[in-house]
């Protein structure tokens, strides 16, 4: 609880990568290097959903040239 008596609930981001769209250019890694990496197949993958601040993860998704990355917070799609 906060000092005002309100309960604050943090909702972790959910990150989805469409490997049919991913080209492995690594723009997501540029913006959020502790969250994204390239797998052995050369495609982006999530290594730690809490590795970077939420705003950097969103920038990483927005920077994807093919729009392969979706970021959700609860039921709300951020990207």
What does this structure look like?
This protein has 79 residues and is α+β, with helices and mostly antiparallel strands. It has one domain (13-77): Alpha-Beta Plaits (2-Layer Sandwich). Helix content is 18%, strand content 23%. It has two helices and five strands; from the N terminus they run E-H-E-E-H-E-E. The protein has helices at residues 27-31, 54-62, and strands at residues 13-17, 36-38, 44-46, 69-73, 76-77. The chain has a three-stranded antiparallel sheet, covered by helices on one side. The radius of gyration is 14 Å and the shape is elongated. The N and C termini lie far apart (30 Å). The mean pLDDT is 93.
What's the N-to-C terminus distance? 30 Å
User: What radius of gyration results from the CA coordinates?
Assistant: 14 Å
- H/I helix tally: 2
Overall 3D geometry?
Answer: elongated
Query: Strand count, sense and closure of the main sheet?
Result: 3 strands, antiparallel
Q: Return the CATH architecture.
A: 2-Layer Sandwich
Could you spell the SSE succession in H and E letters? EHEEHEE
Could you name the CATH class? Answer: Alpha Beta
Provide mean pLDDT, rounded.
Answer: 93
- The strands making up the biggest β-sheet line up spatially as 1-4-5
Count of discrete domains: 1
Number of strands: 5
Stated plainly, the CATH topology is called Alpha-Beta Plaits
What percent of residues adopt helix (DSSP H or I)?
10-25%
Strand content: 15-25%
Low-pLDDT parts are none
Structural category: alpha+beta
């Amino acid at each position: 609880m906060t000092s005002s008596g309100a309960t604050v609930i943090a909702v972790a981001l959910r990150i989805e990568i469409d490997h049919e769209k991913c080209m492995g250019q690594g723009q997501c890694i540029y913006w959020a290097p502790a969250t994204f990496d390239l797998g052995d197949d050369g495609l982006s993958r999530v290594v730690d959903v809490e590795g970077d601040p939420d705003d950097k993860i969103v920038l990483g998704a927005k920077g994807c040239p093919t729009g392969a990355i979706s970021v959700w917070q609860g039921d709300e799609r951020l990207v």
